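We read letters as residues; the fold follows as tokens. A sample entry reads:
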Amino acid sequence: MKKKILATMLCVAMTAGCLAGCGGSSNAGSESKSDTTGTTTAATESAKADDGAASSGSGDEEVEFYMFISSPEYADSINELLTEYKKVKPNVTINYETTQNDYPTMLKAKLNSGECPDIFSSTAGKEIETYKEYSYDLSGQPVQEALLPAIQTSMQDADGNGCYGFHYVGDQYGIIYNQDCLDAAGIIELPKTLDELEEDCAKLQAAGIQPFACGWAEWWVFKQSLIPFLTEGVDNYASFVSDMESGADSIDNHEMIKDNMFRFVDIVKANCESKPLESDLASMQAALATGKAAMGLGMGPWAESSLLAINPDMNINYGGYPVSDDPSKCQIAAGASQALRVNKDSEHLQDVLDFINWWFTSDYGKSWLANLGSVPSIDTNGVYSSKMVEIAMEDTSKNGAGNIGTTYSTDAFWQAFGESFQSYVEGSLSKEDTIAKIEKDWQEIEGSQE
């Protein structure tokens, strides 16, 4: 449980350090999530020097390495980053692939076959130990020193040593609203309780507006929209997770999880698409941006640019998830979960290090991080390029931030968690069966890793 304590410290530290944002935006988008791939191509421009660009790697020798990461919401921006690096290091080609829905399974398959990517993703928290044997210790590297002090130690191992990855964005979970839809239905304030949420859904239905675009074809949407019920539903989330893994506790002992979480899912199901399990990220964003739906789930500031690409005039609002009858519990969750790692056995280790150090220290790289559409992991002097981040900064400073929570368990568990709720939504699992399945997965997937 040492990692779980670290994860709690990370959430507090990042909130204190103003890292209230979630992943930034580039492509369609989370923690996001339709598959996208990209490969750098040779730039026609002459190679040019850039402040912070490392030059200790392969020189003029042709080098090619592989970057396989999650979070395809950043695909467009990362492709732009790689194109720029090609100008700096014309001899280096970075083959970039991204996916979300099955990333944990695909990564493990690659590792089991001895094909570890040169750069790969994991969550922080528990997965630090899971992938430590594959990860290069970045202690003392410029990339670590460029990070905000609050997160320079966030990827230490269970003994508090090393730096086995780095964050380039913070995370943030909340509901995205199309404010014009709320205005059309006469809704003055964002809902803070489950009763208010139901009342607002009725007002939207009466105005001919679909309340929710749910995105439930994506398992991660359940992870990122239901975590507030888990973290707010217990006194000590780290202890709760430990007890769930050992079988010492049960969801039935916690009303907010046993009842409120399922009530929320039922409210959404009654007020979303007619075929909710066919609603993916792209269709959810399209419905929200065009005003077909008023609320979207599981997203953060990383989705803003995709929404505005669909409708540049979209009037965006952002708030926490109503989890009970207590409005003070409705908070935007903030912290950092996703991290990137470097394969310690990479054939081109120095070239990989040169790239990530350039990313975090060059003028271009720092500008890229500052304009990603989220709160970045470096100091940008309080300047943010996202309206949602500005809303969230004001909200969290006034109401506090919820626990991000997701790093206490691996994505292997969260994928099973999301799939259990997909079965609940389609009716193949009852509420009781869903609870039993989640409890079993907590023990079999997570407990076995203790």
Remarks:
- The longest strand covers residues 63-69.
